[in-house]
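Dear colleagues,

As part of the handover before I leave the project, I'm documenting each prediction I ran so the next person doesn't have to rerun anything. This entry is a single chain, and its sequence is reproduced below.
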Amino acid sequence: MIKLVVFDMAGTTVDEDNVVYKTVRMAINAAGHNYTQDQVQAAGAGKEKSQAIRDVLSIDGGAPSDEEVAAIFADFKGRLKKAYQDLDVKEQPGATELFAKLHQQGVKVVLNTGYDRATAESLVNKIGWKVGEQIDALVTASDVENGRPAPDMILRAMELTGVESAAAVAKVGDSAIDIEEGLSAGCGKTFGITTGAQTAEQIQQAGPTAILNHLHELSAAIA
């Protein structure tokens, strides 16, 4: 029986018009590169953002220096802060309704993300979600030692909600690395969703329990 659902944010429960990966691409290409948006999302989706930058820069088989990654990441953070000031952030359709339905069923709801805490909290605040109300906890890449696909964020979510068995946890995300994270944590179920960064075909490569097209499909899927 599922007692906890850990949801990714951007593309899964939060609709921010893909601004993060657009900004990742802008910062990388401003440093003299020429990657497409599809390349950025295929290599970087769901990851802690400095790792995403490193992996995009490694597409052609090279090994970017720590200095280059750090410089691009710093530029990215500045660009993203400016972009978020005027961004119309909204929830993915049906997210709040789904959270309420899960709570009625006795299921805990946690958001996790490859963002740092400041960025994640800014998104949550813009939507109006609060820990202790719509969600039970928020876990970010800056809260743990290892980002996805390591299980650290899911294990932290379990600690915060008192769920002891990973078999009672479902992970939902819009990229293959979300599924890999769920599998590495030993989650009972993992669900890809096609509302975000990657296609069903890309997500399927990680071997999820199922792929959803809309959040409202989840209630039946975890039953």
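The longest strand covers residues 108-113. The first helix runs from residue 19 to 30.

All the best with the project,
I.
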